[in-house]
């Protein structure tokens, strides 16, 4: 039997996939989307980073866009991501960028068999390494997990200390995936997961997802690996803090990551307590898919959006 959370997410994401709905939301809801998205331009995102840094919170820059099938478009996305490093260079701020391999050509095989996404990722990571920056490879829907982990392994070997990736707690396979990466001593962001996945591959129950989330975080910490705890769930956050304290795990081995515009009070509280905190700052014109997933996460977000659209 499906849980309410799963039925709700399925309904919202299903409706969001309707082109008429997308056009309506795009035309009416940008003012609302700006709660979750820093802006459409890189300059907007850089300003958001600077504002957060003044409060003791670091930023993760993410140019929105995914599932690119054109070589030209993938190369354009790559150039725009490289522009992030140009914009941040010399500002004396930590540079942390999140990318989706599907936006830079993961689905495109070049003549000779080279994967365009891997080639473009190498360009991005070479620039990041030169600036002592860090790049996280976002995880997408479940059919892409194998190739993303394969490409992460390749890149982590070539660019040690410069690249990490993301694991999703709602997938049954993730516990085994995490353990299989231990030889790399990887920097991993642990998330619950925001895509609509079938019950054949993902836990349908929020309770099971939460339990698996804790297992993954605790196991990664116990293995001595750097762990990015990406959650707004205060119970999980408090449990992680307590686990780390009881296990003698230093605060330098983990951080809390939260989404831009969500639970600003919690972000500030954690930073004031001395924890490393980063806010995931998305920007760009391709904001609709990201925005839809944020709406699908909580029923309260729907009423928030509707109120904003009626005002618009």
Automatic annotation (TrEMBL):
Pathway: Amino-acid degradation; L-proline degradation into L-glutamate; L-glutamate from L-proline: step 1/2. Pfam families: Pro_dh (PF01619). The keyword Oxidoreductase applies. GO terms for molecular function: nucleotide binding; proline dehydrogenase activity. FAD binds at residues 139, 168, 192-194, 206, 231-232. Gene3D superfamilies: 3.20.20.220. The keyword Cell membrane does not apply. Substrate binds at residues 100, 293-294. Residues 46-305 form the Proline dehydrogenase domain. Its EC number is 1.5.5.2. Its cofactor is FAD. Binds 1 FAD per subunit. Keywords: FAD, Flavoprotein, Nucleotide-binding, Oxidoreductase, Proline metabolism. It catalyses: L-proline + a quinone = (S)-1-pyrroline-5-carboxylate + a quinol + H(+). It comes from the Bacteria. One of its GO terms (biological process) is L-proline catabolic process to L-glutamate. This is proline dehydrogenase. It comes from Deinobacterium chartae. The lineage of its organism: Bacteria, Thermotogati, Deinococcota, Deinococci, Deinococcales.
């Amino acid at each position: 039997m499906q849980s309410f959370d799963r039925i709700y997410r399925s309904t919202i994401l299903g409706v969001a996939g309707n082109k008429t709905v997308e056009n309506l939301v795009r035309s009416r809801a940008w003012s609302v989307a700006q709660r979750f998205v820093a802006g459409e331009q890189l300059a907007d995102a850089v300003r958001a980073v600077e504002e957060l840094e003044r409060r003791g919170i670091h930023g993760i820059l993410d140019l929105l866009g995914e599932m690119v099938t054109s070589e030209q478009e993938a190369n354009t996305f790559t150039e725009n991501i490289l522009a992030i490093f140009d914009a941040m260079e010399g500002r004396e701020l930590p540079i942390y960028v999140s990318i989706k391999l599907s936006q830079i050509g993961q689905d495109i095989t070049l003549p000779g068999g080279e994967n365009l996404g891997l080639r473009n990722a190498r360009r991005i990571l070479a620039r990041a390494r030169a600036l002592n920056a860090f790049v996280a490879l976002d995880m997408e829907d479940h059919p892409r997990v194998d190739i993303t982990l394969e490409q992460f392994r390749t890149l982590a070997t070539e660019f040690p200390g410069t690249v990490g990736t993301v694991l999703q707690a709602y997938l049954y396979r993730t516990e085994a995936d995490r353990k299989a990466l231990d030889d790399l001593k990887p920097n991993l962001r642990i998330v619950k997961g925001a895509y609509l996945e079938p019950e054949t591959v993902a836990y349908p129950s929020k309770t099971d997802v939460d339990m698996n989330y804790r297992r993954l975080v605790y196991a990664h910490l116990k293995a001595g690996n750097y762990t990015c705890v990406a959650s707004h769930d205060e119970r999980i956050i408090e449990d992680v803090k307590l686990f780390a304290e009881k296990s003698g795990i230093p605060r330098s081995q983990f951080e809390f990551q939260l989404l831009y515009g969500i639970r600003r009070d919690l972000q500030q509280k954690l930073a004031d307590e001395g924890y490393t905190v980063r806010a995931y700052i998305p920007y760009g014109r391709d904001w609709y898919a990201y925005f839809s997933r944020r709406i699908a996460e909580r029923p309260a977000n729907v009423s928030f959006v509707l109120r904003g659209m009626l005002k618009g």
